[in-house]
Design a protein that fits this description.
The chain is of the alpha+beta class. It has helices at residues 20-23, 26-29, 137-145, 150-155; strands at residues 9-12, 33-40, 45-50, 63-67, 71-75, 88-92, 99-103, 117-118, 120-121, 124-125. Helices cover 15% and strands 28% of the residues. Strands 4-3-2-1-5 form a 5-stranded antiparallel beta sheet, with no helix packed on it. A 3-stranded antiparallel beta sheet has the order 7-6-8. A two-stranded antiparallel ribbon has the order 9-10. It starts with 8 loop residues before the first strand and ends with a helix. The relative contact order is 0.20. The protein binds zinc ion. Zinc ion binds at residues 101, 110, 112, 114, 136, 138-139.
């Protein structure tokens, strides 16, 4: 059995153990493949960036949280991961419940798989600051541990 690691290519075999929100897309997700970009919930859940093949993504999100137990690992990355990159800030909620998340460049889905609004001042994209009180704890953890693979970046458009 292949190792469960960030950067692995996976196929969605079932959705029995995955979060409810993910399971609501079962008919759409089963059998699809993607790449694991992060791990959450004590590494039991993988954030999967789905392979783009002409489908419309529900809610516009290409990333879904899926339990590792529901995934078949097809291939693991062979190249060493690229150095950590700074993340941009994205927000969800509003007013006093505003939460700041970490987002990769030109993405509207945070590391924790939350759909977010980018924080832009003029043409400057505000960076994610993990020390802010309103920073998402999941994003804070993932930004510190996520190791995006250089080889996978090349494959995505
Ligand atoms: Zn977050």
């Amino acid at each position: 059995m292949l190792r469960r690691v960030v950067g692995a290519e996976v196929e969605i075999a079932q959705l029995e153990h995955s979060p409810l929100l993910t399971r609501s897309y079962a008919s759409w997700l089963l059998g699809r493949s993607g790449v694991v970009v992060a791990e959450i919930r004590d590494r039991s859940v993988a954030v999967v960036q789905l392979a783009e093949d002409g489908f419309e993504f529900p809610a516009g999100a290409r990333r879904r949280s899926l339990a590792w137990a529901d995934l078949n690992v097809r291939r693991v990355p062979t190249e060493s991961p690229s150095p950590l990159r700074p993340y941009r800030a994205g927000t969800s909620g509003s007013g006093s419940s505003l939460v700041q998340h970490a987002v990769e460049a030109d993405d509207d889905v945070a590391l924790c798989a939350e759909l977010v609004r980018p924080v832009i001042v003029g043409d400057w994209h505000v960076p994610f600051v993990a020390t802010l009180a309103c920073a998402c704890s999941e994003c804070r953890r993932l930004a510190a541990t996520a190791e995006p693979s250089g080889s996978l970046e090349v494959e995505s458009p």
